[in-house]
Amino acid sequence: METSTITTTNKSIDMKFKKKSKFKDFFRKMSKSWAGLLGFCIIIFLVVLSLFGQWIVPFDPMDAPLRDRLLPPFTDGHILGTDQLGRDILSRIIAGTKVSLIIGLATALLAGVIGTIIGVIAGFFRGWIDIVLMRIVDVQLSFPFILLVLVISAILGAGLTNIIISLALAGWVIFARVIRSEVLALREKEFITAAIATGVPKFEILVRHIFPNIFTPIIILISLQMGTYIIAEASVSFLGFGVQPPTPAWGNMLNEGKDYIFSSWWLITFPGIAIILTTLGVNLFGDWLRDTLDPELKGE
């Protein structure tokens, strides 16, 4: 009994040590890449802003004192100025960080789930199922992404939840194409062929062999697509189909400030910079993650 207990304890210690070693190795590799490190730092900064922004905003982002309307930056404590209703730009950008990150991550996850399921079904079962699903993908890819999002948004209506659904329904095809290719390659591997030949149930093959081997491509795709969805949300909100005022969102801040572009440049400049920095951070980290986790790119 004592020997068994000691063995179990040793295994537990070894597992913890391996996990710590993996984390150390992960951060060691990232520290050697300025792009990956910069992207990671930007993401962490944005996450902190989204979590603690309500306590660090200098002003109430919803408060609209008209006497302070269109104040230029660094006037009366407003570091980035105020908008046409007197609302503090910096406070609204900080509040909008949470909205953008929620939309980017939630859309990527939802689109990833839909696209992964369809891609796995098409790649594993092949035949007429693959043909039908891939023709649906081809038809959807023939439409411009933003146009398709606008059409779906017009049908569902505006709002945070609906914009996430609209973006996911328009963006799942990228996941489906990539995951299908991964599954087609996996299906030709010897261990999959052997499992099929020995009569292992297809559901068990999917759960035990297919999904664990496509987890890395899914994570890479999610990280790369988040930036696309953040820009798409800003574009749709700019056109009036996304998150609606007075909820602070970078897209509707651009929409509200477009009429003052020549007289009050700060209304659109700073929200635009926020979108650029967020997308840059997500893309830099996503590119580094792809180069690190993708075996083909590493030459393995």
**Helix segment tally:** 12
Helical content stands at over 70%
Q: Give average pLDDT, whole number.
A: 85
Structural class: mainly alpha
Radius of gyration over all CA atoms, rounded: 24 Å
Q: The biggest beta sheet, please?
A: none
Query: In total, how many beta strands?
Result: 0
What percentage of amino acids are in beta strands?
A: under 5%
Distance between the termini: 43 Å
- CATH fold category name: MetI-like fold
Element pattern in H and E: HHHHHHHHHHHH
CATH homologous superfamily, by name?
MetI-like
What is the level 1 CATH name? Answer: Mainly Alpha
Shape: elongated
Fold and architecture overview:
With 300 residues, this protein is mainly alpha-helical. 76% of the residues lie in helices and 0% in strands. It has one domain (32-60, 70-298): MetI-like fold, CATH 1.10.3720.
